[in-house]
Queue: 2 jobs
Job 1
Amino acid sequence: MEQQTKTSGRPLGTTLKPRQLTMMGLGSAIGAGLFIGSGAGIQAAGPAVLISYLVAGTLIILVMWALGEMAAANPDSGAFSVYTARAYGPVAGATVGWLWWLQLVVVIAAEALGAAALLATIFPALPVWLMAFVFIVLLTAVNLTSVKNFGEFEFWFALLKVAAIVGFLLVGAALLLGWLPGVQSPGLSNFTGAGFAPSGFAGIATALFVVAFAFGGTEIVSVAAAETAEPARSVKKAVRTVLWRILVFYIGSIFIIAAVVPVGSAGLKSPFAAVLDAAGMPGAATAITLVAVAALLSALNANLYGASRMAFSLAERGDAPRLLASVSKARVPVIAVLASVAFGVVTVGLELAFPEMVLPVLLNIVGSTCLLVWTSALLAQLALRLRADREGTELPLRMPGFPWLTGFGLLILAAIFTVGFIGEDSRPQLLSTFSLVALLAVANWLHQRRKVPVFVGASEDHKQPALVD
């Protein structure tokens, strides 16, 4: 896990600041899954969904620690794809990389359409198709400028979401404590008796599968670390500050929603707005809709960045067309950005032409990707950390409690997969994603057989060949 620096071709930029990386980690975790989707978890498990969030939050902490350890030692735009390749070979690494890229480019289309549809509820005169394409064009322009500009844009997006969460927590606390004039506190009656877990353990398990996806996106910090001036220091700060804030924001928000909005209430379709309405806040629905739009656009911006960097990394390793590795004077992989957004544009066009026929199918296929990426990250960290400890390699950041906490994270993931395969609704999604993984693995295996091994820039420690076409 020794630190390495790319020397082939023009390198990517290194102008991301630690504050931008930290806010990117927060912003990527605080998205529409929290603002809009949290009601689904409460509907499934009742207030006991807090247990599901604690389990999923523990998992993401372990994954972030594992990724942080590897990113601090080896900052690379391919992140977990590169680490998986170093631990288990190029086929595994390329498969994880392409899987993540496919997920992001599909989600880009979903986020553009979702943001446009939400904004249309406030401004119905604006066509959804036009707003979706405007969002994509604007955020593509942001990604084509320097990474510093991207980081600043994402910083303010994330700051808006964090400010909204903090404001919500303050209003919710005042509501529960009875500090709002003319508004009666709902108390904690939702947490007492059978109402705490109306569906029992089955509801908590079902909600766990739903809740896990809410934390998707945090892995982008490991990708962005490669474009900071001091990766080791930046990753340390991001990991240590992001983790506890994610738990405070998520657990705090869900606690307030579960206490105020009862199970079965129509308000769970927009839980944040329901709480603000209960607090007597005028314009709550409009405000939370605008925040949700910002959350979707922030995710679109970050996902386009992540997809382009993964495509660049795959091209650098010979696992994607070489053209994707070309870098502009601003040190941005322009072709990789355009190729990534092109898939999203085509998907948006097809979805608008054939509603509910294209995007839902694609999302179902890549829906479980984040779980597989987290699994690959923990497995890679397990192998690379054992190798580093065996060879006496110093690491800038070390995951505590190794290997027990890594194993615990894998155990949580195994439980989530088990719950997913048992559930009638989630099983087809998992089967579709695993089928995609199998196809990618076969394609990458066939591609690797066409490569010629040459010992160029190989690590003296591992005696592994660098593979080129």
Job 2
Amino acid sequence: MKQQKLSFSLKLGALLVSQALFMGHAAAATAATSDCDAGVADSLTQMFTCGSVHGSLRALDYSTHNAYFSKGYSQDTFSYGGTVKYTTAEYYGLSFGLGGIFQRGIDHNQDHLVSELGSNQTGVGEAYIKYHYKDFSITAGDQRLSIPFLGDYDWRITPMLYRAVDANYGDADNFLHATKVTRFKNWGDQGFHRDTAYTNADGTNEGMKTNGMWAIGGGRAVNFDNKKLTGQLWYEDYNNYTKMYYADSYLSWTDTPYQPKIGLQVIRGLSSGNAVAGEVNSTTYGAQFAMNFTPSLRWSLNWDHIAASNNAYGDGALVTPYAHNASSGPYFAQPFFTSTQDLGSGNAYGTDLNWTATSSISVGTRYTFMDLTPSSGASSTNQSEYLIYGTYSFDGVLKGLSVTDFAGVQTTSNSAGNFWQNRISLEYDF
């Protein structure tokens, strides 16, 4: 099986290289012949002829030992695929996007599959209409989102997508934002459904359906002396799951070599509707400090406290219908292989060191400690994660091609075996 993977990896690498060369020549030809100006069309014809194609082709090898602390159980999954999307130019502020997704596996063993990489996918991914005028934009249809706990966490083959109406006024720092979601497409699915990332014990979503969620948020930035202060506040209401309040603020010193940055966050979750995941009563406070040791060496220290709440879901853990078992989202202290919000109440700690060695090489290491209790009266899991990671990005005619590896181990005080995991990806973005 490993020989088959290696052989296919080499073939896929050659394919990605040839694709990179082709896309580079195509982009140069388009730039030389196009009459469009910065993606803005002067006619309906130009709206389509001046459109652009973007995508990401990937191969991912995902291996575990004692997967998620299930002693003796290993997962070994190799899949390839990706996304390709065509976006029209803007005509009187109007544009369209249409994309496809596909995923295939190599020599899959059904007893050792990673679920989100196991199923074949072929279908339409993003499909939306967008209107843009000055600082205002609104997008309706199947799309990626990027608001707290609604992202695509895009390291797998195909992304998380949302059927939604998403509106924004302003820029990255100063904005008003509103979102309404009606359907959701998870990693391992090619369709949009009323499901979330939560399931019953038998793996079904029966009784866990939802009509989606809505959110409203705003952000503000202020500059004074040599410092920049930013902040954002969000309210999110997940139908029949939870109501969530999220706030964070950062104070940055940008004109010093060390560029220190201090962050604070508060997250509050309460039950909503039928509370199908369980009663929600969650309160989180977090703090972060980051700085540069050198211009290329960045370090951060992170902490979150999740208050205990008897009889509530996860002893006070946060319910996140679209980020459960997927990502810790904006939590300051978060492991890579598991999610802070899924582990209970208590204290979470983390530290991260990243070195941008060259324009092509980035390496780093992270340590997290989850002193979290999954249920009332239970002992702490005392989960430690030791992670190393690195990326090599090609340049020149291979620009957009990269190889990334994440390798690490998690340990707990109440497990019979350590949980090892390695993820290696070959990716070409164009």
